[in-house]
Write a structure and sequence with these properties.
By secondary structure, the protein is of the alpha+beta class. It is built from eight helices and eight strands. Helix 5 crosses helix 7. InterPro entries: ASHA1/2-like_C, START-like_dom_sf.
Length: 210
């Protein structure tokens, strides 16, 4: 197993539900610990130049109450910003996206160790959840955490991200991510056969047969 694929093993995943103004929302949570000071992790998650190095280029009025836009991806409003511990944003993509928010929480464990939590809360169309479960967004967030990990350790993103996405290493990474989200879904109370079916659909989506 490569060191990149092994990063899957460093993330804790949880699946749940929450009541929001728009109804019942689904939640996915990722947690891992970084050997980095909380100020460094916060800066990596909030400085536009650094975000572009491990995630996507971002533009907008990047302050509390302002709006942001990730290139080719989600945009929204900056809802809460409490340096260096809490960042919450609406996470809107496409037409009529409905309720969707992402919260990043950081907790210092000593001077050079930080617990990172990312929670995505969204009202998901039933047909989409029934088909893919939490893996639909979970695999994408695993990829984002991989990018942040490589950035914080100084390794940096692959030189050719598109080529890497098609590599055997990336396919194994996404397959293992999908499997872990299937396990987290089952741990949340989903029947084993339901969790397995959503895991297979997610894997087929992210890792299509060649």
């Amino acid at each position: 197993m490569s060191e990149i694929v092994d990063q899957i093993n460093h993330v804790h995943r949880e699946v749940g539900t929450r009541e929001v103004p728009d109804g019942e929302a689904r939640t996915v949570l990722l947690r891992r610990t970084y050997d980095a000071a909380i100020e460094d992790v916060w800066d990596a998650c909030t400085d536009p130049e650094r975000i572009s190095r491990w995630f996507l280029p971002v533009s907008g009025d990047l302050k509390l109450g302002g709006h942001y836009q990730l290139q080719g991806n989600a945009g929204g409003e900056i809802l809460r910003c409490e340096p260096p511990r809490l960042l919450a944003v609406s996470w809107l993509f496409g037409e009529n996206p409905g309720f969707s928010e992402v919260e990043v929480r950081l907790t210092a464990e000593g001077e050079e160790r930080t617990v990172f939590e990312l929670e995505h809360v969204a009202v998901v169309p039933p047909e989409m959840w029934d088909q893919f479960g939490p893996g639909a967004v979970g695999v994408g967030w695993d990829g984002a955490l991989l990018g942040l990990t490589l950035h914080l350790t100084g390794e940096g993103a692959p030189a050719d991200p598109e080529a890497w996405q098609a590599s055997d290493e990336a396919r194994e990474f996404m397959t293992r991510s999908s499997e872990r989200w299937g396990a987290a879904y089952e741990a949340s109370g989903a029947p084993a056969e339901v969790a397995a079916a959503t895991m297979r659909a997610t894997t087929e989506f992210y890792v299509p047969a060649r």
